């Protein structure tokens, strides 16, 4: 009879949690304890495998020979005994990710296809990620109707039409589809749209930037379970060509995007406004990201888009507007040594003022807002006060911290004060500021600091020589909470075409902000330690005072 205290070791959920923290060798030993432990340990050993794990489990089928770079192959063809042994482990594989590092030779997959005893190599496989473009067709060997999540990296050398047909036929129940590619969408648009129409159970679609063409969006609009359309701006995801998305005018029908909650598209702001304002538009969305290929969208187009969104998408919680920034031309009002030589009137008609952003204040559920533009936002301290007081629940507020025209800013570090006062949930705040002008902090009534850590995105913000940088670090250390970080990431994605003058200015500002961040972090930590020390002293003095009061009361009878 088992000891009562040992019964906890028979609880599958507890064992699974414990095994998840153990090394491979430990779980290999656990698999030999008993039948319960055997299955749970194998789930941990083989549940989530990559290229190395695939080589390992195929070695159970038949020994492998070769090198990681040149590729592995079977020493001998798999036999029925090997398949019986392999199937005992194969049923535990739930997630497979293959990138051919290490590489398996074509002959391995040929032998498996020829000798297998059943159609599904991994019958319980739910997630398949194949990022080996040169071996693209091999992934069909692992496809079956039980797979719910599929990711694929496309190749220029292999036409994807047949692959798309296999995806639809072999994995009709896929709910999450992720496509990595650098192909132009016009090359595969027809076949990809046809694939989307066949995958009726799709919930999430992720594809590269510049893939959200009119035809693609129209194909996705008919999927009744589709809730998310994403286009991450990452090198891994890849990207198409800007030329393929210059016109965006989808035609929608009744029932279009009935379940859509999150969408990311690439279109100019006027086309995006028309898309949202059209009949049967996706008015249930809660997250909306629009990236425009136009350099410096006009204040009118931004105002129009925000007006349409605020009117039709009342549930919006996260909104991002990205207008393309041109890094190839030398910015105006800018010397090669980063000195400013222009006027201070900021009269550029393409600069965004609060007037253009006013419809934003009708979105009462907003917790995240981002805007990125070629020119600095022309906002005042009062405007920032309005933002902070209007959105007390805001968590992310990114107000164009990385403009290309970055010689002058209308805001200083004082812009942080309203956010610290009104927005207790703020996690990320980005703004283009002039940190060479250090505001004075009253010693009588200092501003309230942030109560929790934030990430401050300064982007292209102006920073002066190192003496002023010290003053900026001191100022920030009085407002930011311990654990806060500072980022000078400009948020640009066209670095290969950057102008030399702009590149030098950017590198110089990054150096200055790196210096400010290092000093600021040390000062914040020192202030926190000093506050703790002061509290400890006050606590001791209070205890001492209480003791004296008690003694005095006793003395007075």
Automatic annotation (TrEMBL):
At the highest ranks, the source species' classification is: Eukaryota, Fungi, Dikarya, Basidiomycota, Agaricomycotina
Q: Name the UniProt key words of this record, in alphabetical order.
A: Coiled coil
Q: Which InterPro entries match?
A: LRR_dom_sf
| Coiled-coil features, chain-numbered ranges | 528-555
Protein name, UniProt field: F-box domain-containing protein
